[in-house]
Design a protein that fits this description.
The protein has ten helices and ten strands. By secondary structure, the chain is α+β, with helices and mostly antiparallel strands. The structure holds S-adenosylmethionine. This is SET domain-containing protein.
């Protein structure tokens, strides 16, 4: 999908990197350990420094079920597991424990399962979700430092460092979208997963919190605005660059590839193919860290990096020179 009928720029969500040509390998020793984390129960913590894009965990599901499954479906799936696996399953977090509204086996499934459907087209209630005994311990952060993708070929969930990490740092994904204000993010978390976040971004107070909320609110607005700028590519480029600067200030690597791809499309539109190539490369680099070099987003960006003229909007607006990515606005 390169464009839609309304002529808006197409989007690729959740892309993200390493430098081109860098071979990333899974660390030779276990790169994480599971331990108690303040105010969050258990969590995963890095045992060693991890470079941006490093795979630190690849895990196959204990079992999978449809999103709309029942408690008895879960009990049947558990019947095929070993005693140890069953025991471990029942030690996983249950976000519905106090309300008691959901039976325990199903409540644990709902608290801990990840989507792992082979096709993005599957209807939501039929989508496969899987239980991953280790990955279920990964906590949420509104400034996630981990990207994840379901690898269809390996039938495993793959987790990568979104940014360089130090030994001792907690490894966190995002359970919900993290571009709203703290209040909006927490309303979403409470609604969907039943807890209030204690991450660093949510712990901010006063001016720091106001600035973070403002930046995330602006990025959210720019996300929609950039794609409306088909007829004003210069303005679109300014907005995409502003979004990238704000993402960097918020330490949010997760959305970098999306805005780089927008910038690519704007350049391709006006036949600025030199800058288009530079943006496609940046989008590719950014997508490698969250979804990996073999993910669909990275493959698409790499193809446009090699041939920006292949984009269906290429050259459809009067020729002009926009601008390329800056070295200093990487997240
Ligand atoms: C999938 S589990 C993650 C692992 C869990 N901490 C454990 O001990 O097994 C999700 C639960 O972890 C806790 N949690 C995860 N991220 C959190 C955060 N940022 N702030 C507060 N609690 C969090 C919540 O209790 C949530 O229901």
């Amino acid at each position: 999908m390169d464009s839609n009928a309304s002529g808006l720029l197409s989007r690729r969500t959740h892309p993200p990197p390493s430098s081109p040509g860098t071979e990333l390998e899974a660390p030779k020793v276990l790169a994480y350990y599971v331990c108690g984390v303040k105010d969050k129960g258990k969590g995963l913590v890095a045992t060693q420094p991890l470079p941006k894009g490093a795979v630190f965990l690849e895990e196959k599901p204990l079992f999978t079920q449809n999103a709309g499954c029942t408690n008895s479906n879960i009990l049947s799936a558990l019947a095929n597991c070993t005693r140890d696996e069953q025991r471990e399953y029942f030690t996983l977090c249950n976000a519905y424990k106090t309300s008691g509204k959901v039976l325990p086996a199903l409540a644990i499934f709902q608290t801990n399962s990840f989507p792992c459907d082979d096709s993005p087209q599957t209807a939501p209630s039929k989508q496969r979700r899987g239980i991953f005994l280790t990955a279920s311990r990964i906590n949420h952060s509104c400034t996630p430092n981990v990207g994840r993708i379901w690898d269809v070929e390996k039938q495993a969930m793959v987790f990568r460092a979104l940014c360089p990490m130090q030994a001792g740092e907690e490894l966190c994904i995002n359970y919900v979208d993290v571009l709203g204000t703290r209040q909006e993010r927490n309303a979403d978390l409470m609604d969907r997963v039943g807890f209030e976040c204690v991450c660093e971004a949510c712990a901010l107070q006063g001016e720091g919190l106001a600035q973070s909320d403002q930046r995330r609110g602006t990025i959210w607005r720019l996300y929609d605005e950039v794609r409306m700028c088909l007829k004003e590519p210069t303005l679109g480029m300014r907005k995409a660059k502003l979004a990238l600067r704000l993402l960097q200030e918020e330490n949010l690597a997760l959305y970098e590839a999306t805005f780089c791809f927008d910038a690519f499309q704007l350049c391709a539109l006006v036949s600025d193919f030199s800058n288009a190539k530079a943006w496609a490369r940046r989008a590719w680099e950014a997508s490698c860290a969250s979804t990996g070099p073999d993910g669909p987003a990275a493959r698409t960006f790499k193809m446009y990096w090699a041939n920006p003229r292949a984009h269906r909007l290429a050259g459809t607006m009067p020729r002009m020179v926009l601008s390329g990515p800056n070295q200093d606005d990487r997240t």
